[in-house]
Amino acid sequence: MTNWRLPTVRRGALAVWRRNLLVWRKLVGPAIVMNFGEPALYLLGLGFGLGHFVGEMSGMPYLAFLASGIIASSAMTTATFEGMYSVFTRMVPQRTYEAILASPLEIDDILAGEMLWCGTKAAMSGIAILIVAALLGVVDGWQSLWAIPVVFLVGLTFAGPAMIMSALARNYDFFSYYFVLVITPMFIVCGVFYPIDTLPEIVQGFVYLLPLTHAVELARPLVAGGELARPVTNVVVLVGYAAVSYYIAVVLVRRRLMV
Amino acid sequence: MSEPIISARGLDKRYGDFHAVQGIDFDVPRGRCFGFLGPNGAGKTTTLRMLLGLTPMSGGSLSVFGLPMPAEARRVRARTGVVPQADNLDPDFTVAENLAIYASYFGIPRAEVAPRIERLLAFAALTERADARTDSLSGGMQRRLTIARALINDPELVVLDEPTTGLDPQARHVIWSRLSDLRDRGTTLILTTHYMEEAERLCDELVIMDHGRILDQGSPRALIDRHVEPDVIEVRGEASRHLIALAEGVGCRVEQMSTSSYCYTREPGALLEKLRNEHGLTFLHRPAGLEDVFLKLTGRELRD
Ligand SMILES: Nc1ncnc2c1ncn2[C@@H]1O[C@H](COP(=O)(O)OP(=O)(O)O)[C@@H](O)[C@H]1O
Ligand SMILES: [Mg+2]
Known about the structure:
By secondary structure, chain A is mainly alpha-helical. Chain A has helices at about 10-25, 30-55, 60-90, 95-100, 105-135, 145-170, 175-190, 200-205, 210-225, 230-255; strands at about 55, 60.
């Protein structure tokens, strides 16, 4: 019964993306406060507070180290929230997808639009953090703008797995498991707060399989300055996670809705 | 007659072990209103979902607008309007925005959208409420908006799943008049219902469905003539057993359902005479309708 056909993405995905943008625009005030408030809190609280004791990390001020990590992790959490709570709401209680599916659009288009929207929200949160970090004087020049497409990609990377969770969820409680078991551990071990090479070696090997590690590795030098270690690998891993998880999400949502 | 707009042969659907639609055949003529009448669980919604390519068919063949399904589902849906069984308006948008957003899913050029919305709001008598939130609308208004939304792509075919279930009589009449207008303009309508009055008023042709099968098909009049005698005498309550006794030997087919008895007959005179002589017995004499056909074909036990 399972329909494994490879997804086809068409222009219709943009209609779904635009729908979300129009809803977002209605609540733009609170959304922007959230976008700026949370990272500002982290950077000011942790960056200054902890930075006072830590001083430098990996050859840069702790505030710069932290800001360049938070920009990646914030893309992760933003896209994850959107891909779970919002997607589930539209798919199940609100039955927005049911309505859309009566038009020529298909599940492939809907999830592609949702994913683009998750990327867009991740990019918006990234821009907010860049602005806060620049005001705090820890952004290293204009090349840091490259971090914006990077966080957009990171948004896509994490949107896919979140949508898989939505496709499997019976209710909202289910999402707590994913946060506790997947997102929070990545937040802690993937180099946001301290360099990965301080971890035991066997753990490092595992940590390099996690997408957030690659997101941080890419974003940090772009924001805080320094050499990109292995940009091609980083991008390939992020794109790979995005593509595979999108495909799985499409198959699972088909199984859920096309019965 | 012209090519049917929909043609189904051996259309079949299984959900696991459960056989929801059991190989049905039907043709829907263009420009008519075609009804699926059946009790809950008959397989009406499942059949509509297959027509739209929203659920995989388990067997049979199906063509819509002469296009093979489900292969051409996207092209079929581009030319079809859908009113689902339960409203699924977008709660994040106002009435007018709901129409605009829906137009975008069909890729309708922006310049064309505004005049269409204006026309559809007028059609649905919602112009005054254009900027209202959808959750502030009454059930009847939500239904009208859902119907207006289904017309955003100027469809040749509109599929309505129980369009008036749960509405009060006034709201129901408004919707019936809108649907008649649509049909008069040449739009083909397909609707499911378990309201006899709705089927009788709107449908030129209908199928009676139960347990995933089509029991019979035809115009409401033809179905009535084919299955039941033209006159019905009905006695309700305690007194209904009297009818059974009196009806003996006067050429009646007697049926019972819960607390009522019905006598179906071609010659009601003799029984009416007898009933009038019984003191204080209230009875109802009426022409046979679709409901009588429906009950005869689908049986009288309760469904939920
Ligand atoms: N997704 C599903 N999985 C299993 N059984 C289903 C599903 N959808 C409908 N059914 C069953 O198929 C039968 C026909 O359902 P449906 O087409 O909704 O009937 P109707 O619209 O005539 O009330 C019912 O017995 C229903 O319980
Ligand atoms: Mg139904």
